[in-house]
Amino acid sequence: MVTKEDAIIIKNDNDLEYLLHRYFNGPSFAMAFVFDSDDLYNRFFDAIGISVETFQEKHYYFDKEKNVHISKSEFGFVWISTVGLVATSKATKNKFVNAFLCQEPVLIHLLDDAIEICNDERIYDIDSSSYQMVEERTMALFHNLIFFSEILLKAYISLQGENVPHTHKLETLLKRAKEVMFKQNHNDTLFHAYIIPVIEGEVLHISSIPGKFKEEYVKYDDNEHDTTLMIFRSDYFSQIRDFVSLSEDIIMGIYYDPEGKMYLKQGLYERLLEKCKTAKAKEAVEKTYGFLVEKKK
Q1: Are 2 and 61 in contact, with CB atoms under 8 Å apart?
Q2: How far apart are CA 236 and CA 256, in angstroms?
Q3: What is the sign, positive or negative, of the torsion defined by CA atoms of 292, 199, 123, 112?
C-alpha cells in the first residue's frame, strides 16, 4: 500500500512549477504527493482551478472529461492521477497475499453466479441454455476453487516467514501448511478448525481421481481421468462462499495482526465445549472438532 513515505515531496516553488507543468502538459502520471506547506498546497489547487474548500469537503475530485482524479488520503498524502481512476498500488507487500486477494473476488463472483443459476427452473431442461451454464460453471468453479486453496495455503505459509514450496500440488502445500501450523502453535484455532478440513477434503477428492492428477493442468481440462462433478445446490454453494469469505478474513487478519489474536488463538476446542449446555451438544462438539486436540499427524 502507498504510504506517506512513498510520496514525492513538493517542498518549494520549483517543485510546484514542475508538478503543474506535468499536470497540464504531460507526460501523464499517477503518483502520491506531500506538500511541504499549506501555501504550496493551496497554490496547486488554485492553479488547476479547483476550490480548496470544496475539495476538503469530499477529500476527492474527479473530472471525467479531463480524466483527472485527485484524492487526499488519511495517511497524509495527496493522490494525483492524470490518467483517470487507477489503483494507487498493490493491496499488500506480500506477493502471495496479493495473489490470494486477486482470486477471492473471482471465486465469490462465480459462486454468486452459480447460486443465481440454481434459482432458474430452466436448468432442469438439459437442452436449455441455462443447463449449458451448469456445464460451464462446473469446470470454472472446480479449477478456481483448487487455485484459491493453493494460493490460500501459500499466503498462510509466507505470512509465517516460512519458505513456500514451489509447486501447485495441494497435497504438498497442505502438508507444509500443517507443519507450519503446529510449529507456530496455530493448531486448535479457527484456522485449524475451518480452513484445514475443507482443503483436506479437496486433497482427498483429488487423490481419488485415477491417474496422476496435476493441479496446474486443471484449467486446460488436461487431466484425462478427471470426471469431477459439482452438485448444483444453492445451499452447497453458500457453504463454499462462507469458506471463501472466512479465508479472506483470516489471511488479512493475520497480515495486519501477525500475532493472530482472533483467528490463531489456541484453545478453540475447550471454548466450544464450555458453551455446551447439554450432553448431546458436548457429544456433537467432540465428534466434529475432536481432531483439533489430536496429536500431530
Answers
A1: no
A2: 31
A3: positive
To the nearest whole percent, how much of the chain has pLDDT over 90? 86
Residue 80's beta-bridge partner residues? 31, 70
Residue 297 pLDDT more than 60?
Answer: no
The string of pLDDT tens digits covering residues 101-127 is 999 999 999 999 999 999 999 999 999
Cα–chain center distance at 209: 29
Pull the grid cell for residue 56: 476538503
Radius of gyration of the chain (CA): 25
Please report which helix (H) or strand (E) contains residue 248, including its range: helix 234-256
Residue 26 — left, alpha, or beta (φ > 0 → left; ψ -120 to 50 → alpha)? left
Upstream peptide bond of 105 is cis (omega within 30 degrees of 0): no
C-alpha to C-alpha distance for 35 and 43, rounded to whole angstroms: 10
- The pTM for the full model equals 0.87
Which residue has cell 507487500? 93
* CB of 169 closer than 8 Å to CB of 142: no
Are the CB atoms for 205 and 145 separated by under 8 Å?
no
Whether residue 174 contacts residue 195, with contact meaning beta carbons closer than 8 Å, is answered with no
Residue 98, number of CB atoms within 10 A of its CB: 15
Strand positions, DSSP E, the chain: 8-10, 30-35, 60-63, 68-72, 78-81
Distance CA 106, CA 118 (A): 19
